[in-house]
Design goal:
Layout lengths: L4 H10 L4 H20 L7 H4 L8 H18 L13 H10 L5 H21 L3 H18 L2 H20 L1 H5 L1 H18 L4 H31 L11 H7 L9 H6 L9 H17 L1
Helix pairs in contact: 1-2, 1-11, 4-6, 6-7, 6-8, 7-8, 10-11, 11-14
C-alpha cells in the first residue's frame, strides 16, 4: 500500500493522462487494493500449519539456506564484486547492468525469504554469531545482485524486530503509522541538509528508490504501453512461456530494458511488468 499503491495513485493524478485512463486505472487499483485487505484473514493450508507436530526441524531450514547460498556463489563466482555504493554508485549501476545471474530465483529466495527467516531466528535466540553470519550472507548476496536494498534490508529488519519486541502488539497495530511517520521525517531531514555526497546518496535510496520509484516506473510503463500503444507481451516476457510460444515481441531485450529505452532496466512492480505490460487492465486483474 505504502510503496506501490500510493505512488501509483499519485502518478496517475499528476501526470496529465487522458481522463479515461486516469479514472479507469485509479478505480481498478483501488478495487484490487481493497481485495488485498479483504483477504488478510484468508490462509491457504491453514489446518496443516496449525498441527502441533513439527513438520521438520528448523536445522533443516538453516542447512538449506547455506546450501542455496553456496550454490548461488558457485554458479556466479565471476559476478562477485563489492562496490561502495556511497562513493561508487556509477560503478555499481554499470556492474548491475552487466550482471547476468545464474539461478536468479535462488538469489531472490535467499534475499527475501530464507535469510530474513534466519535473521529473526538468531535475533530471537540472542545469538550474536548467528546474526553476524546472516549479515555476512547478505553482504555476499549484495555482491551478487548489486541491489542497494539487499545490504540495507538486514539493518532495517533488525530495527523492526527490536521495535516489535519492545512495543509488541502496539507496534503491530500501529506499524503503518510508524512507517509513514518514519519515512516522512527522514525525507524532511534529508531534503533540508546540504547536498553532500552522503546526503545525495541517502536521498537517492530513501526518497527516490524506495518511496518514489513505483510512481516513476508507472509513468514509464504508461508512456510505453498506454499512451504509445506498443504491443503487449501477453506474458511471453516470462522465459518459459516465450520458449513454449516464441511470441515475445521485443527480441533479446527484457521488458525492463525495452521500457527504459536508455540502456537501463526498468524492473517494476507486478502490476506493471505482469499487468500493464502483459495485457493492460486485464493483465492487472489477472496478476
Amino acid at each position: 500500500y505504502a510503496f506501490v499503491y500510493v505512488p501509483f495513485v499519485d502518478a496517475l493524478l499528476v501526470n496529465n493522462y487522458p481522463k479515461d485512463v486516469t479514472v479507469s486505472y485509479t478505480l481498478l487499483f483501488f478495487l484490487i487494493m481493497c481485495a488485498f485487505f479483504m483477504t488478510d484473514k484468508v490462509f491457504l493450508l491453514k489446518r496443516l500449519f496449525k498441527q502441533q507436530k513439527k513438520l521438520m526441524s528448523f536445522d533443516v531450514i538453516i542447512v538449506l539456506t547455506f546450501v542455496l547460498l553456496a550454490l548461488a556463489l558457485v554458479l556466479n563466482i565471476k559476478q562477485l564484486h563489492f562496490v561502495n555504493f556511497f562513493s561508487e554508485s556509477e560503478e555499481l549501476y554499470s556492474l548491475r547492468a552487466e550482471t547476468q545471474l545464474n539461478g536468479i530465483y535462488i538469489v531472490c529466495w535467499l534475499r527475501a525469504a530464507f535469510l530474513p527467516l534466519l535473521l529473526v531466528y538468531y535475533l530471537n535466540r540472542k545469538s550474536f554469531i548467528g546474526v553476524s553470519v546472516v549479515f555476512v550472507a547478505y553482504l555476499l548476496v549484495f555482491m551478487l545482485d548489486k541491489q542497494k536494498l539487499t545490504i540495507i534490508f538486514p539493518f532495517a529488519l533488525t530495527v523492526i524486530y527490536f521495535a516489535y519486541i519492545y512495543y509488541n502488539m502496539a507496534f503491530s497495530k500501529n506499524f503503518h503509522i510508524f512507517l509513514f511517520f518514519l519515512f516522512s521525517l527522514v525525507s524532511l531531514i534529508i531534503t533540508s541538509l546540504d547536498t553532500s555526497p552522503l546526503t545525495l546518496t541517502l536521498g537517492l535510496i530513501i526518497v527516490l528508490r524506495i518511496q518514489c520509484i513505483a510512481g516513476m516506473e508507472l509513468e514509464r510503463y504508461f508512456d510505453f504501453f498506454v499512451l504509445h500503444d506498443h504491443p503487449h507481451t501477453y506474458y511471453t516476457h516470462i522465459g518459459i512461456i516465450d520458449k513454449l510460444t516464441g511470441l515475445y515481441p521485443y527480441g533479446e531485450q527484457s521488458i525492463g530494458q525495452v521500457v527504459a529505452g536508455d540502456g537501463g532496466n526498468s524492473n517494476a512492480a507486478f502490476w506493471l511488468m505482469d499487468g500493464v505490460a502483459a495485457a493492460g487492465m486485464v493483465g492487472c486483474i489477472i496478476i
